[in-house]
Every structure is written in C-alpha cells, then in structure tokens.
C-alpha cells in the first residue's frame, strides 16, 4: 500500500478552481518534487494535503496510509503524521519556541496514547536537533518566529519537522528567500529525515534545492494538473528549457 | 473565515464550574438601606463610635446623591437601574465561638473552601500563605496570625482591625478613597461589612504572600468589602485577591473599596484574579463589579503595583490607580480583561504624577469574544510641579470573532514640560492563518486559541505570583470556551 494516493483531485479557493484533476502516488521512503510556474497550484496542493478549511475539495479522493485524508481536520491529519513546512510561517507572540514545540509534540503523543514529555526530557532532544540545523540556543526562548529572519523561519520549520517526526512531510517552497548557506543547512536537515517509513514532498520553483535534496521523482504542475513526471533529470531539463514548452502544451500562451 | 465563524457558535459553553450554593444557616437583616440599617450593621460588629459616625456621614452623603439621581452614568456599559432598597446589606454565617484552629471551623464552610480550590490545610502546610477567608460578609478564619505577629505584621479581617487596632484604622481609613470620592465609594463606606486589613511595620519584608478569598452566597446580598493595606517605611508586602461566586439569577452588586498606602521606600504589590459569575450566555444574571481601588505612594521611592486578571462579572467598572506623591515613586498597572458572551467591561487606571521623577507603567490587554464589549479607560495626569515624570502605556486589544467590541479612551493631561510619555496601542484578531499553523502542528482549535491568547497576555501574567499565574491561564481557557474564532 502506498503512503499517499491522490486520485482525480479538484480543489477550489475563493470560488476559483485551482486543482483540476491531480493524480499522484507516493510511497514511503521516497522523495518527490512538485515543480511548476506561478499559479499552477503547487501551494494549493500543499494546503489541501494539510487540510486547510478555506481550500474546498470539489472532487476526488486522497488516501493517506489507507485512510481517508479528506475526512480529517488539520489537527487530526497532523497527529496522523502529516507535516507542512509553511512557505510563510506566522508569528505567535508571547509563546516561546520551546514551549510551542513541546505542546505540539505532546498533542501528537496524546493522540497516539503515548505519555507526554516534560520539559526536562524534551529540552535535550530539542537541543540535539537544533545543533543539526545550526540554530542558536537563544532561539529556544524567543517567541515563535518573532523577529526571525526569512532564513531562520525556514530553518525553524525544518526544526519542527525534525522534532515531530512526521510520516508525510510537505515542504512548501522551503527554499524561497534562502541564501546559499541556509539552503545547505536546510537540505542537511531534510536529508537527515530521509527514512524508509517517511515520504517527503518538496514543492519548489527552482531546481537549485534539488541539487541538495535529490528527488526520486519530479512532477511538473501546470494549470492545476500534472503535465509531466520523470526522474531527477527532469528538473535539470526544466532548468535548461524553462516551463514554456509545457505551458504551451497545456494550452496556455 | 466562514467555517471558523460557524465553529464560534458550535461548541457548548462549559458550565460555570464553581456554581454551587452552600447550605449554611445565615443571619440576615431585611432588605433596604436607611440609617437604622447602618446602626444595626455597626452594632452587630460592636464598632467604636468613630466608625458609626463615619458610616452615617457616608450614608447621608450617598443618600443625597441618590435622591438627586446622581449615580454616575458615563461608563461605556449598559445595565438596568439598580434598586438599592432591594438589597440585603448584611449577612453572616452562624457561629458560636471564635475559632483558634481550622478544625473547629464549621465543616460545611471548610468544604466550600475546598471546592473553591483553596484547601486551607494544604496552604497552611505547604505554601505558607496566610489566608483570611471572607465568607459572605464576615471573616471566618484567619490563619498564620502568630507567624506574622512575630514579624510584627498585622493581617486580619477589617472587623478585627476595628476592634484590636482602632487607632490605625481611624488614622488611615478614607484617606485614599474618601467617602465623597464617588457614588459607590460612599455606599461602600456606609455599609461595608468586612475585608482585609494589613499593616507592615518599618523595614519589614512580609514573610509570605497574603491572600483573601471572597464568596458571595446568599441571593440578593450585595457584597461590600473594604480593604486597607499600609506599608510603613521600607516595608514590602505582596497581597493576592481571588474571588469566585455561585450561579445566581439576579444581578448582584459588588462595590468594594481598596486603599493602599506606601511610605518612604515601601512597596505594595496587589494582585487580583477575578472570576465571578459572568452571567449566562444570553447575558442573564451575573455580578456587577463596581470597585474603587487606589494606592497612594506617599513616601519617596515608594512603589505600588496593581496586577489584575478579570474574566468574570457581568459588568466590570474599576480603575485601580496610583497617586504618585513621593519623589521617585513608581506606579504600575498590569491588566488582562476578558469579555465573552454579553459581558461588559469599562476598566483601566489612573496615574497621577505629583512628586518629582515619578514613573508609571500601564500594560492593558483586553480580550473580547462573543458579544463582549471591552473598554480601556486610562488617565495619566502630570501635575504642574511633577518634574521629570515618565509614563509608558501599552494598551492592546484582541478580538475573537466578529460580534464583539474593543474601545479605548486614553486621557493624557500634561502640565509639566519635562514629562516623557510613551503610548502604544494595537488591535488585532486571532488570524485564521495563526490558528491553522497551530492546528497543523497537532493542536486542537481550542488549545490553539488558548495558546495565542496566553501569548498575548504573557506580559501581564509574568507579573502575577506563581500560583496565580497558573490559575489565571486556566481561567482564561475556561472563559474562552465556546468563543472560538
């Protein structure tokens, strides 16, 4: 059984249909990349998978680990192991990163019938992951994403992923706004999460990130549908030729 | 946001946990207010003449206002006219003797305290907090008197203070909030039943935090407490006030007065967590909380801090204030006020700068949910001779859902050109994107809202003594149930 099966997915946002029939299968242990021009629906797909309520699914089904993902609320999907690294992470003033992460972890543990972790046990584990992402200890007590640079926000997303250990991780344009060094660190963090039990979906504009996080499969989204799929070399081809040919083929000028 | 708006209406309101009535036999005088009632109250308490005289003067003054229909009406709150003759002004539980030990206390009363989460025995043994538990209008138990007596601290009920320390009471009573101050202060001065009295002698740091729990029990009994805290030169005291009340159909008037006096180099920290019955989700019933609280920083380098978390009451009308008379004196006001369902609040502070180099800090966090109306009203006054005065004010409002209101009336009056004033204000909503972020990390919507709100209030919670901070967070969560947006 595949970890993720998307069948004929149609989704609408603000009354406009963005996803027009997505079919995609991802197995555990795989890294897939979703690429495409602006407005193609990449982020919409990511948000739908994370179960954002303002994104309305009008047709199709999504099986996650054999379960009906569309029947789940965001927090349920999260507790079942779905993680979205946001493109624009929000700030939560007054709530420290450490407190927030421990609360999230414990919410998931509680759902699974596991014992909650107290601060004493949690902090060393958190510090360990922070080292991997070369993040300063000071960030522990700062409010979630408050006064974080773009790069710090993205690294914070990967840190959270490392702590929450999802089964399906969706990275929504994680590379946007990152400099070369931050890119390397983020990729390092993501690669460290590769495992036979886990699937990673990397949504990105540019091929650059995929030099560091080499995907097993690349899918090109154009106008709400997957126009083409291939191996990692497809990303290189796109970089060389651009999206133009595919867009033309999909009926856009 | 339409689906989240539906969620607002969806969740059932959690029942007011502390809504229950005790079965104690009570001694009550009939409803109504006139000079005879005042005399009865004073006689029952066996008060010295000066007290009766003060009460009578206050009553006559109040009566003159009442007859002129001079009840203040300027607050941003609406309520039906109060019939002052339809209230019982005194009720006391039947007690046969003075109690030395808690085990001698009426077990029914003790059970009441336990339900309220204040097991006196435990507190006595662990936290070392002295509790003066006010049951309706009379203080029932005072613990730790001996320990405090060693330090020279006087902490007892107001009634006891009138008996045992009449000189102190007479010296300070009404010097910060005279009975002429306002309509409700006059009423309180006339009929107040009890409250706390604290005196900390020179140079003494009170060895423990002092605390009082109130409870309004009988129907149609207004609660009129009077608290007086005096910190002599170099003294320090931290006082906690926490209240709960049972469910009642009729509105209950609560018009308390709190006076604080700090002399040279003295500090008073006064913290309140107020969780009185706020009315049901249709706005029926609930307590009216019309309080006058004021601190006089009489001495040089003195400091008075007010910290409050107000989640209860149907209507809240209070402005804990500081009069900064002494040079270098400091006044602080930290507040979280929550209005949900049909609650109304008009609350804030007054900081009056009189001495030189005085400083005041105001941090007000208002949370509105449901149909709640939340108003911040502040006055910062720098008098002519108050050179080098500084004020920092931050008032933030958080709106949950789209049916509530937040209002701000900051008054700033500066009569000295050397003053430095900073004022910041913000209004925000809990964003759908914030909630989604937290939910995507596994948190249920209610926990997500709680988290955002706690983050919003953090600056104020930091000022609360530890045990109160925990209670405050829980209180906020309970009060916000059913308000998700």
Spatial arrangement of strands, main beta sheet of chain A:
6-9-10-3-11-12
Radius of gyration of chain B: 22 Å
N-end to C-end Cα span of chain B: 8 Å
Mean pLDDT of chain A: 93
Q: Could you give a short account of the major beta sheet of chain B? A: 11 strands, mixed
Summed up, the domain count of chain A is 1
The tally of beta strands of chain A, per DSSP, is: 12
Overall shape of chain A: it is globular
Mean pLDDT of chain B: 82
Oligomer: heterodimer
How many discrete structural domains of chain B?
1
CATH homologous superfamily of chain A - what is it?
A: P-loop containing nucleotide triphosphate hydrolases
Task: Summarize the structure in words.
The complex is a heterodimer of chains A (253) and B (485). By secondary structure, chain A is an alpha/beta fold. Chain A has a single domain, classed as Rossmann fold. Chain A is built from 9 helices and 12 strands. In chain A, the strands form 3 sheets. A 6-stranded mixed β-sheet of chain A has the order 6-9-10-3-11-12, with helices on both faces. Chain A has a 4-stranded antiparallel β-sheet with strand order 2-1-4-5. Chain A starts with a strand and ends with a helix. With 485 residues, chain B is an alpha/beta fold. Chain B has one domain. Helix content of chain B is 26%, strand content 33%. Chain B contains 12 helices and 23 strands. In chain B, the strands form 3 sheets. In chain B, strands 5, 6, 8, 10, 11, 13, 15, 16, 18, 20 and 22 form an 11-stranded mixed β-sheet that branches. Chain B has a 10-stranded mixed β-sheet with strand order 4-3-7-9-12-14-17-19-21-23, covered by helices on one side. The longest helix of chain B has 19 residues. The N terminus of chain B is likely disordered.
Offer a quick outline of the entry.
The complex is a heterodimer of chains A (253) and B (485). With 253 residues, chain A is of the alpha/beta class.
């Amino acid at each position: 059984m595949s970890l993720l099966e998307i069948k004929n997915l149609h989704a609408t946002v603000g009354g406009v249909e963005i996803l027009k029939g997505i079919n995609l299968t991802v197995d555990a242990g795989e890294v897939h990349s979703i690429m495409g021009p602006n407005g193609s629906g990449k982020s919409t797909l990511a948000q739908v998978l994370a179960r954002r309520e303002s994104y309305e699914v009008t047709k199709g089904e999504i099986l996650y680990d054999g379960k009906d993902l569309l029947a789940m609320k965001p927090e349920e999907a999260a507790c079942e192991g779905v993680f979205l690294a946001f493109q624009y992470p929000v700030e939560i003033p007054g709530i420290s990163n450490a407190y927030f992460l421990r609360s999230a972890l414990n919410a998931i543990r509680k759902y699974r019938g596991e014992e909650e972790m107290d601060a004493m046990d949690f902090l060393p584990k958190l510090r360990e992951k922070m080292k991997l992402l070369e993040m300063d200890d000071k960030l522990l007590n700062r409010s979630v994403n408050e006064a974080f640079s773009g790069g710090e926000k993205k690294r914070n997303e990967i840190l959270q992923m490392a702590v929450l250990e999802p089964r399906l991780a969706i990275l929504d344009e994680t590379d946007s706004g990152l400099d070369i060094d931050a890119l390397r660190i983020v990729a390092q963090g993501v690669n460290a999460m590769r495992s036979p039990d886990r699937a990673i979906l990397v949504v990105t504009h540019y091929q650059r990130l995929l030099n560091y996080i080499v995907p097993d499969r690349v899918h090109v989204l154009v106008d709400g549908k997957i126009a083409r799929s291939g191996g990692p070399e497809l990303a290189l081809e796109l970089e060389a030729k651009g999206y133009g040919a595919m867009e033309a083929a999909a009926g856009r000028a | 946001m339409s689906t989240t708006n539906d969620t607002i209406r969806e969740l059932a309101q959690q029942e007011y946990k502390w809504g229950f009535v005790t079965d104690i036999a009570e001694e009550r005088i009939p409803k109504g207010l006139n000079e005879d009632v005042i005399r009865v109250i004073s006689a029952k308490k066996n008060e010295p003449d000066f007290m009766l005289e003060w009460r009578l003067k206050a009553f006559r003054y109040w009566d003159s206002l009442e007859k002129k229909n001079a009840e203040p009406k300027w607050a941003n709150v609406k309520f039906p006219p109060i019939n002052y003759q339809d209230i019982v002004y005194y009720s006391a539980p039947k007690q046969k003797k003075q109690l030395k030990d808690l085990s001698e206390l009426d077990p029914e009363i003790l059970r009441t305290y336990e339900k309220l989460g204040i097991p006196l025995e435990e507190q006595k043994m662990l936290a070392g907090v002295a509790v003066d538990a006010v049951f309706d209008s009379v203080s029932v138990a005072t613990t730790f008197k001996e320990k405090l007596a060693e330090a020279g601290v006087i902490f007892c009920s107001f009634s006891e203070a009138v008996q045992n320390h009449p000189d102190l009471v007479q010296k300070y009573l009404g010097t910060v909030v005279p009975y002429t101050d306002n309509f409700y202060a006059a009423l309180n001065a006339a009929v107040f039943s009890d409250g706390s009295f604290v005196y900390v002698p020179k140079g003494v740091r009170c060895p423990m935090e002092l605390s009082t729990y109130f409870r309004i029990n009988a129907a149609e009994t207004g609660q009129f407490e009077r608290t007086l805290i005096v910190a002599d030169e170099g003294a320090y005291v931290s006082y906690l006030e926490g209240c709960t009340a049972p469910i009642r159909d009729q509105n209950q008037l609560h018009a308390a007065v709190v006076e604080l006096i700090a002399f040279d180099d003295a500090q008073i920290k006064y913290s309140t967590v107020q969780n009185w019955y706020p009315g049901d989700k249709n706005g029926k019933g609930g307590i009216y909380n019309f309080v006058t609280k004021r601190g006089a920083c009489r001495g040089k380098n003195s400091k008075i801090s007010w910290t409050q978390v107000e989640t209860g009451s149907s209507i809240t009308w209070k402005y804990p204030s500081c009069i900064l008379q002494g040079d270098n004196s400091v006044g602080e006001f930290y507040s979280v006020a929550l209005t949900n369902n049909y609650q109304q609040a008009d609350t804030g502070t007054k900081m009056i700068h009189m001495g030189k180099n005085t400083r005041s800090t105001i941090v007000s966090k208002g949370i509105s949910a449901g149909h709640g109306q939340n108003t911040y009203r502040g006055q910062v006054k720098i008098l002519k001779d108050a050179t080098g005065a500084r004020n920092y004010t931050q008032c933030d409002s958080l709106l949950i859902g789209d049916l509530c209101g937040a209002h701000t009336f900051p008054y700033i009056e500066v009569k000295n050109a050397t003053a430095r004033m900073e004022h910041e204000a913000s209004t925000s909503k809990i964003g759908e994107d914030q909630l989604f972020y937290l939910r995507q990390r596994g948190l249920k919507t209610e926990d997500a809202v709680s988290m955002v709100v706690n983050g919003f209030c953090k600056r104020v919670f930091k000022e609360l003594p530890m045990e109160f901070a925990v209670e405050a967070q829980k209180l906020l969560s309970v009060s916000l149930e059913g308000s998700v947006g």
